[in-house]
Amino acid sequence: MQRKIVRFVEEENLFYRDEKILVAVSGGVDSVVMLDLLCKMEVECGVAHCNFHLREEESDGDLEFVKNLAKAKNLAFYSVDFDTKKYAAENKISIEMAARDLRYNWFEQVREISGYKYVAVGHHADDVAETVLINLARGTGIHGLSGIKSKLGKIIRPLLPFPRKQLLEYAQAHSIHFREDRTNAETDYVRNKIRHQIMPVLEEINPAIRATMTENVQRFREVEQIYNRVIEQNRLHLVFTRENQLLISIPKLKELLAPVSHLYELLSLYGFHHRDIRNIAESINGISGKLFYSATHQLLRDREYFILSEITEENTKEYLISEDKEQLQAPLELTITLLDRTPGFQFPSDSKIACFDANQLQFPLKLRKWKEGDAFRPIGMKGKKKISDYFIDQKFSLQEKENTWLLLSGSKIVWVLGHRMDDRFKITDTTTKIYKINLI
Amino acid sequence: MQRKIVRFVEEENLFYRDEKILVAVSGGVDSVVMLDLLCKMEVECGVAHCNFHLREEESDGDLEFVKNLAKAKNLAFYSVDFDTKKYAAENKISIEMAARDLRYNWFEQVREISGYKYVAVGHHADDVAETVLINLARGTGIHGLSGIKSKLGKIIRPLLPFPRKQLLEYAQAHSIHFREDRTNAETDYVRNKIRHQIMPVLEEINPAIRATMTENVQRFREVEQIYNRVIEQNRLHLVFTRENQLLISIPKLKELLAPVSHLYELLSLYGFHHRDIRNIAESINGISGKLFYSATHQLLRDREYFILSEITEENTKEYLISEDKEQLQAPLELTITLLDRTPGFQFPSDSKIACFDANQLQFPLKLRKWKEGDAFRPIGMKGKKKISDYFIDQKFSLQEKENTWLLLSGSKIVWVLGHRMDDRFKITDTTTKIYKINLI
């Protein structure tokens, strides 16, 4: 086992022998064996222990145990107390997530301040298998199958090739004492179901299940590399940015072998989930105008592009209107009609209706509240007027101002809704198509 | 459910409504519901039932049940009896595999003879999830995760989107009778462990586990498509054939993002397993001369190429010797030395030693038994001589003939081992390097 860990450290390029390693030691068999192996490799180690205060007396016992272990080995010792439950409640996350956040943040602090090169954590082959199964059960693409990385930033995992059983055998063979680690048993419901109810059955099917899963993961990781490269190459052709928007070419998506995967990799960063993305992908072959929302972003299926933009606060939020749209429910109700210019065309006198020269409009149109600096050319006027000045002229109340919406084509104001059109978009003698909007 | 199956048939392009479908009906809930749904779609169906004779009275009861069902629905009925256990024993395969072979072969016969377009089988969403887990437990790459295809050749699977639970509910709601199918319970050990011990636990973690797994599989399938295309594109650059050999360029493999995956896809077709391929991949950065065997093929890590060739019967088997090889244990023991030609070079008189002009040799050399038609130029002679004539001249016994090995360079015989060299490879005044072989 000592030989195997040395080979693994070399193969995976985890660290050089003269680099200082901060070893995370809970007191459980994994971390205690890891510390022992690293010390036998004559690596300069420090010991870091977190007390999560999840099982009062036992937590304190763990602390005492690890402290003595560090002392016996003559190693620097660092410890910290966390109010894990409080942190979890405050951040509305699970105890498991809370413990993870707290632990890794603190490790990084100690590492940096005390001059360690890496933090070694005790994940092993059982964790790899369990993680794959957890991800499968929760829903995953290829990324969730490529297991746990042996090195990620400053975190290294030298025990990754070893199943827990082997660590226990090593501890026994070398009379290494450790604490029964029950943290997991209490905090991580899903992992425990997998560990205690599923893994033993898989082991009956395949006694070398952990090694097999580690091999599977190695294979998936190569597949993931190929996949990532293809996605990355195609991203360059698919996507460009315009102002604050991300535009994804629909014709180019259609040509791709795996459009859903590409959309997923592009959009999951913006809070869209797999199911949203299935729906978005279906709209590729549908009509334009459909809108999709994540918690932070909206995506419009426009004619040639999916247009992604951030959802900001209500006052600065923009609603896109694609060319095919015939009706809008939110943020305000209106109908849209595209008409041919007929000789007897009468401009409606209703302030709720506006008609524009369709050829002057650039789609998608935008609907938003007014903001400081907005200016337009009120119909019939030659010069520009600030919207704020227009409001003053019209003696708008504060509430009227706040409730006023603007329709924009590109960055130009087309209509102060229900009030005044812009001169640049009016019907002229050369107009052939009329774009008529009716506020309801 | 009726609407969903219609949509699935359309989306996956399973069949047109006017095409005749042979429906595989075991009598279990899956196949009986499938038959009901297809009949409601007004598809012209025939019913095919296999009696595997695995549980005597029950098997007969199933037959009776399905026969009556077909009669009641006024459908053509086909049935067959298999001696599954005998077939399994004869072909040294599991009962499960035997049943599958027999069933699919017979379905295809009936389909073709009786003019059906497709055979519909009752795999459903539970089978998809189970298959993924079985493959993971046994060891798999991406291919084992992409689930069960809804259409493969003439086999279609219209129930794939539905979990078994939904089929049971449908049967109950429509008062559809079915037989308790216990075939699986008795024949398929692994599938049953997954079905009865693992799936229920996963369901506790994620109540929609079957839908989630179906989604996972959709995602993996896209990843697989991307992966397949990349492998296929690179195959063209990596591989060429020479005579009966497949050559894989080692320098080009080294340039690839995922060499192990490429080797796997190239070599798994020839009976190499994943672990063999890990070893082969490791030899990329090692020295040449290493040989790897599958049940049917050998792979030589030569200098620039991996050379794949078939292992034929012992008498026609070829053993490759790469340029760096210094020793051979099988099929016979010999040592190889590369020498500089020195002025005082003495040609050894031992018949067990032969010396050749190294520059005349084309690597890898081949070692094999003689065969009809072989001919060479015995050293000192101008003309060609058939090996069979040489044997007659030398008064070889049958056994001596059978035990005689030939060393070849390309298709030319270099040495009749222990007997006579070929004139074309002898040491001449222009020889600078000598290739010396010593039989032990």
Describe what you observe in this structure.
Chain A is an alpha+beta fold. Chain A has 3 domains: 2-210, 3-Layer(aba) Sandwich (Rossmann fold), CATH 3.40.50; 243-310, no CATH class; 322-439, 3-Layer(bba) Sandwich (Phenylalanyl-tRNA Synthetase, Chain B, domain 3). Chain A is built from 15 helices and 22 strands. In chain A, the strands form 5 sheets. Chain A has a 6-stranded mixed β-sheet with strand order 3-2-1-4-6-5, sandwiched between helices. In chain A, strand 9 (291-293) and strand 10 form a beta hairpin. In chain A, helix 4 packs across helix 5 (95-114) and helix 12 (259-267) crosses helix 13 (274-282). The longest helix of chain A is centred in the middle third of the chain and has 30 residues, at 209-238. Chain A is elongated, with a radius of gyration of 31 Å. The model of chain A has no long low-confidence stretch (mean pLDDT 89). Chains A and B meet through helix 6, helix 9, helix 10, helix 12 and helix 13 of A and helix 6, helix 9, helix 10, helix 12 and helix 13 of B.
Most extensive interface: pair and counts?
A: A-B, 43 and 43 residues
Under CATH, the topology of the largest domain in chain A is which? Rossmann fold
The shape of chain A is elongated
CATH level 1 name of the largest domain in chain A? Alpha Beta
Named at the architecture level, the CATH assignment of the largest domain in chain A is 3-Layer(aba) Sandwich
Sequence stretches where pLDDT stays below 50 over 5 or more residues of chain A: none
Which class of secondary structure composition applies to the elements of chain A? alpha+beta
User: In percent, how helical is the residue content of chain A?
Assistant: 40-55%
Regarding quaternary structure, how should these chains be classified? homodimer
Task: Describe the main β-sheet of chain A briefly.
Answer: 6 strands, mixed
The overall strand count of chain A is 22
Domains of chain A, number: 3
- Rg of chain A, rounded, reads 31 Å
